[in-house]
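ingest -> validate -> predict -> emit
validate: passed (alphabet ok, no gaps, 166 aa)
predict: started
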Amino acid sequence: MSVRQERMPGSADPGGEIMEPTYDGADLIHLADRPGTSGHSVVIRIRDSLSGDGYLECEIAVTAESLNATFRAVVTPEDLEEWETVLETLASRRHAGWLGGGRVPSMRFRPDGHDRMAVTVHDAPASGVTVTVPLFALPSGWVDAQRALLARARETNPRGTGGTAP
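emit:
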């Protein structure tokens, strides 16, 4: 995870300025087929921290053969908590949904129990587009890899435990 530190007025660092993390393409979610297979992927890349309350400006990127789609999303601290719960569900090979509140694109995850999963992104708030991408060959340990990405995002942006998205 790559993070740049930018000085913001009114901080509490030794120089009297806040050090806010600014993200440089760090992934919150990275689901992709193993190298040498289909090349399909669904990635949520953190673009920036929107405020000191833990809101993250993100981009959902979907790639499959001739498709490259991106959707903007603001992820809240509550969304991060929910993602942790979704990962527990996916670890038990059950279907799950995430970001279903209607303010950002929603996601559905349908694992089949054999290292395969279909991921659907539905952009109801903006374009109305729905994209479903089959992931045919998830690498072993993919759930733990997602947990590690979530932990890194939290370490880098520890603020915010409540509120609603801007």
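The chain has one domain: 3-156.
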